[in-house]
Amino acid sequence: MEALVGEAIAAGIPRLDAELMVARAAGLSRAGLLAHGERTLDPDALDALRADLRRRAGGEPLAYIHGRREFWSLELDVTPAVLVPRPDTERLVELVLQTLPVAPRSVVDLGTGSGAIALALAHERPRWTITATDASDDALSVARGNAARLGLDRIEFLHGRWFAPLAGRRFDAIVSNPPYVAPDDPALAALIHEPRRALVADDDGHADLLELVREGPNHLAAGGWLLLEHGASQGARVADALVTRGFRRVVCVPDLAGRDRVCCAQWP
Prior knowledge:
This protein is α/β, with parallel strands linked by helices. It is about 40% helix and about 20% strand.
């Protein structure tokens, strides 16, 4: 099977992905593959693997090919209807958990996609009331399925864009990883398999972020928090907008690579 890994790498697939794909086709862990590289695949498994390798070589994310992605130690189903959850977004989850007390609180996750953020928070804080919204019915179907499979189905899922389905409700925290990629960003070329509506925002990627800053206070309890993931170069503008809107305790927090990743602010 090492020859199959080599074949995949030669096609431009990263070694880690190549090893994971071959191991999965063989019914092994990655460690098992390294220990039993001499095993062979039956013809049907080999055909299925080569079809998957062609998809990966064409740029399709491994998460879509296998239908799963781990986030916050939770195995999530993912489809092309939702973004593939990224490790950077775990920083947002960490900050919510650090900012709010363990005591019962109400939190809304706007644009939930696969449900990654809402599910991580529900897993860590079973006493919190979690609501999640999304404008995509298909995305909500994925999120609801993940919640049911993980036994976290007490989350309230609502269909609608941003605050539209919330009817004036207020929360102790609003959390979101909204679209923040500029329409002309060259990085989009590598993201063609993921839903553009969940990636791209007008105003050089700032439009949705600024909308959430503008409308957030209408849905925050006194002393409530707004926590927004954003692009590495967007922190200063988001922070300025938060200060102008009247938020206090505004701070931009870096990711593990040292790049600004999340803006946090408290409503008076």
